[in-house]
Amino acid sequence: MQKRTILVGAVFGAVLALGLPFVGGGGPASGTSAFAEEGDVVPVAATSPLATTGRTGDTASALAAVTIAARSDALPAAAARNLAVDTEHVAQKPVPKPVVVPQTPAARRGGTAERVAARQAAGQSCPGNVGGSAGGAPGVTSAGGVGGTTSGDLQSFAAQYNAIRVANCLEPVPMANFRYDPCMEQRLFWIAEDPSEDVNSAWGHSGTPRSDGAPAVGCDGNLAGGSGNTGATVAQKWWNSAAHQKSLYRPTYTGSMGGVVICFAMVHGGLPNDGYGFARAAARWGGC
Fold this sequence. Notes:
Layout: H1 2-24, H2 56-71, H3 75-83, H4 105-109, H5 112-121, H6 151-167, E1 178-180, H7 182-192, E2 222-227, H8 231-240, H9 242-249, E3 262-270, E4 274-285
Parallel strand pairs: 1-3
Antiparallel strand pairs: 2-4, 3-4
Helix pairs in contact: 6-8
């Protein structure tokens, strides 16, 4: 009887020893590597061999590691999608300021949209404006009582002139390069002092006569005038006029603006009874 008990016990022990690894799941399934495939994104616990020594604790750890590895099968694709988007810094990146292209006839004629597109294609933005002040003007009064160019006239014109250029993707002119021109002012005085009651008498470029036959004096330029005009309003009038835009703004010019000088003069009032609010102005691109 004792021998039979010992024999049964030995057989039972052998069965347990042979079957335990399969019952407890202590190792990877047949044909499955105990290591993560190269390139897989999985937890560190699943990258070590999942061997067991038969202890309960080791078996539980092995099962947990296998479970984690199994649940991580979908991680590589999701991780790849996340890595493709810089979610951490996307909110910190500056948002480019949208460029609003003027849709006016003057802008189309001046090639504004083409300049904007060319700069964007080259990875560049349109020019910004410049600071500073224009030169001064003496504000003299003519012999006939017509008011001459003031510093405010010149500053108003220069500021609007550059604002128009920048709005149309053109380089601005240095503010110090806007100059009062006494020679053009002399011609404007000559026009304003025409004794005719017709404000258009003597108004025009070189060769236009005055009603009293007085010989012309001074220098010619781009002309603009009328009631309620300022330096800013005449700057806009010249941009809006095809011939004056080409002469005074030169949108096709690609040289340095550092050497460009814009000459300006404006007179207020006139004979026989033009009020101070009636202004005549002249400007030109070039040395004064």
